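stage 2 :: seqdesign
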C-alpha cells in the first residue's frame, strides 16, 4: 500500500479527533478500551489497523490536548506543532550525528540559540533535546555530578561512583519527584537527598538552605525549583543561588514549566535570578504547546555537558568536531528530530505571542480562582501567581470532600482536574497550559466544578 492512501486516512482520523476536542467528553468513555487480544498470524490491511487505532482512542482516549483538560501540567499542541511533528515522522531524520542530517543539526543550533535568548540564559549554554523534563533533570544533573567530582579530582566518567568522594544533593522538601528519579538514576539515592524545609507555598526556605550548606562541603549540588507543580511558586533564586555559589555548589533549576515565565515580561520577576544557575530543565511539551515528547536539558558549562553525554566509537569519529552532533548532548544516540516542532512554534509565534501564550494561561488561572472563590465552602490554597490553582472543598459539616468532588468532575466530563495532597490533606489541582482554552471554557468548567461541589 502506498503512503498516499495510509497517510490520507491518518489525516482524516486526526482531523476528526482534533475537531472533536472542543466538545468531546474530556474523560475516557471506556477506561478499558477494546484491543486485539493476541498478535495475529496473518497480515492485516493497514487501513483496518488505523481504523482499529481510531476506535481505541475513541473509547479510551482522553481529550488531554483539548481546551478543558487541566490535569497535571499537560500543555496542548498548536496546529503548526502537530503539522511539523508529522513531518518529523515523514522525514525520519536521525539527529544523533551532524553527518546524518546537517539540516536538523543546523535547526537544533538555531532553535537552541532562540530558546536561550527567550529564557535570558547565557548564550553559550548548551541544550540537549531530550524527551521531557524528567530526562532533562537527569541529563543536567549527570553533567553536574561529573563536573563537581572532576573539580575534586575524581573522573566519574572513567571510574564510576564506587570509591568516589561523596556528592551531597540538596533539594527543597517540595521538590518534584523528577529530582528523586534523577538521583536514583545517577547513583545518589533518593533517600540521601538533604531536604530543605519549604514555606506555605512550597518554596525552599533560605534559612534552611543556609543551615544545610553549613553542614556539607563540596562536592555538592543544590536543586532549586522554578514553578511548583501544585502552587506554581518559585524558589527565591537570587538569595539561594548566591548562598549555594558561596558554598561552592553547582546549582540546578527544575523549571519544567515555570522557566517559561522568563519569556513574558509581566511574569519574568517571578523567575529573577535563575539565569545565574549552572543548569536548567524545562519542557517544550508543556508550555510551548508542542506534542510530547520534548524536553530541554540546558547547561551553562558545555564541556561538562558534553563530557557526561558524548559517546565515542571509531565509526562515530569522522562526524565530530565543531559541528553539532545531537548525541553529544542527550543520553540517546539515535533520536527523532524533536526540535522541529519547537522551532516551528517559536518561528510562528515569535517572541510576542510566546509571551502572550504564557500570560494568557496565568490570566485563565486567575479567572478560575475568582469563579471558585465565590463558593463559601471552596478554599483556594495557593497564591495564584502563575498557571496553577490549588483548591480544597469542604462539606457543610466542614469535612474535606475534595476527593469525591474531583471524582465527580472527572465523571461529569466537562473538564478534567486532578488530585494531590497539600499540607497533609487532599486537594484539587487545576493547571492551565493549553493554547485553545478560552475564557468561556473557564466559565463552563467552573460551573461544572461548582456543581460537583454542591
Ligand atoms: C517541576 C516539574 N519537574 C519535572 C516534571 C516532569 O516532566 P515530564 O513529565 O516532562 O518528564 C514536571 C511535570 O509536571 C514538573 O512539574
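stage 2 :: out
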Amino acid at each position: 500500500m502506498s503512503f498516499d492512501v495510509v497517510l490520507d486516512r491518518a489525516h482524516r482520523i486526526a482531523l476528526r479527533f482534533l475537531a472533536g476536542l472542543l466538545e468531546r467528553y474530556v474523560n475516557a468513555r471506556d477506561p478499558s478500551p477494546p484491543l486485539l487480544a493476541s498478535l495475529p498470524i496473518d497480515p492485516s490491511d493497514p487501513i483496518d489497523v488505523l481504523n482499529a487505532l481510531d476506535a481505541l482512542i475513541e473509547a479510551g482516549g482522553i481529550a488531554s490536548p483539548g481546551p478543558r483538560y487541566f490535569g497535571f501540567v499537560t500543555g496542548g499542541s498548536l496546529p503548526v506543532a502537530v503539522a511539523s511533528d508529522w513531518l518529523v515522522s515523514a522525514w525520519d531524520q536521525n539527529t544523533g550525528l551532524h553527518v546524518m542530517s546537517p539540516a536538523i543539526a543546523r535547526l537544533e543550533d538555531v532553535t537552541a540559540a532562540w530558546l536561550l535568548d527567550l529564557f535570558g540564559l547565557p548564550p553559550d549554554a548548551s541544550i540537549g533535546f531530550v524527551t521531557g523534563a524528567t530526562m532533562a533533570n537527569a541529563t543536567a544533573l549527570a553533567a553536574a555530578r561529573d563536573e563537581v567530582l572532576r573539580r575534586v579530582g575524581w573522573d566519574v566518567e572513567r571510574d564510576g561512583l564506587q570509591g568516589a568522594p561523596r556528592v551531597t544533593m540538596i533539594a527543597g522538601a517540595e521538590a518534584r519527584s523528577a529530582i528523586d528519579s534523577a538521583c536514583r538514576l545517577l547513583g545518589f539515592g533518593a533517600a540521601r537527598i538533604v531536604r530543605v524545609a519549604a514555606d506555605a507555598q512550597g518554596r525552599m526556605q533560605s534559612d534552611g538552605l543556609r543551615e544545610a550548606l553549613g553542614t556539607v562541603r563540596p562536592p555538592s549540588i543544590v536543586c532549586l525549583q522554578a514553578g511548583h507543580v501544585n502552587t506554581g511558586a518559585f524558589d527565591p533564586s537570587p538569595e539561594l543561588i548566591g548562598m549555594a555559589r558561596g558554598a561552592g555548589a553547582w546549582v540546578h533549576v527544575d523549571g519544567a514549566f515555570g522557566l517559561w515565565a522568563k519569556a513574558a515580561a509581566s511574569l519574568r520577576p517571578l523567575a529573577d535570578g535563575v539565569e545565574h544557575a549552572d543548569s536548567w530543565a524545562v519542557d517544550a511539551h508543556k508550555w510551548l504547546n508542542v506534542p510530547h515528547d520534548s524536553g530541554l536539558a540546558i547547561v551553562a558549562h558545555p564541556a561538562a555537558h558534553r563530557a557526561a553525554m558524548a559517546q565515542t566509537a571509531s565509526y562515530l569519529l569522522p562526524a565530530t568536531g565543531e559541528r553539532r552532533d545531537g548525541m553529544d548532548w542527550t543520553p540517546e544516540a539515535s533520536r527523532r528530530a524533536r526540535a522541529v516542532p519547537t522551532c516551528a512554534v517559536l518561528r510562528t509565534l515569535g517572541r510576542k505571542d510566546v509571551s502572550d501564550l504564557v500570560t494568557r494561561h496565568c490570566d485563565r488561572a486567575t479567572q478560575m480562582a475568582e469563579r471558585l472563590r465565590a463558593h463559601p465552602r471552596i478554599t483556594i490554597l495557593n497564591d495564584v501567581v502563575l498557571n496553577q490553582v490549588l483548591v480544597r472543598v469542604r462539606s457543610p459539616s466542614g469535612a474535606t470532600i475534595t476527593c469525591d468532588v474531583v471524582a465527580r468532575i472527572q465523571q461529569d466530563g466537562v473538564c478534567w482536574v486532578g488530585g494531590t495532597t497539600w499540607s497533609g490533606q487532599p486537594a484539587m489541582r487545576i493547571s492551565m497550559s493549553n493554547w485553545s482554552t478560552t475564557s468561556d471554557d473557564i466559565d463552563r468548567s467552573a460551573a461544572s466544578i461548582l456543581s460537583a461541589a454542591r
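stage 3 :: structure notes
- The pocket of pyridoxal-5'-phosphate is lined by residues 72-73, 132-134, 176, 178, 227, 229, 254, 256-257, 283, 295 (CB under 6 Å).
- DSSP finds 13 helices and eleven strands in the chain.
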